[in-house]
Amino acid sequence: MTKQDSTTYYRRREQQERARANAATDRAAAAIHLELASSYAELASGGAPMTRQLAGEGAPIGTLDASDPAEGGGPAASGP
Question: Would the pTM count as exceeding 0.90?
């Protein structure tokens, strides 16, 4: 793939991710799509993509706080 092809691809993916962010009904999902869009924009400009730890500082991926609405959770469910 040529540099021009790569740039075109990254710009297209950036636009797609921004559209997905605008269409998302969940704020956390929209934020992730915007981060992806930013990474594609960085790649299109010849830079390295941004990276982030998905689960928060120092937490292994997949250990989101299910009780935190900012992380897609809600009130803790009570057991029977």
Answer: no
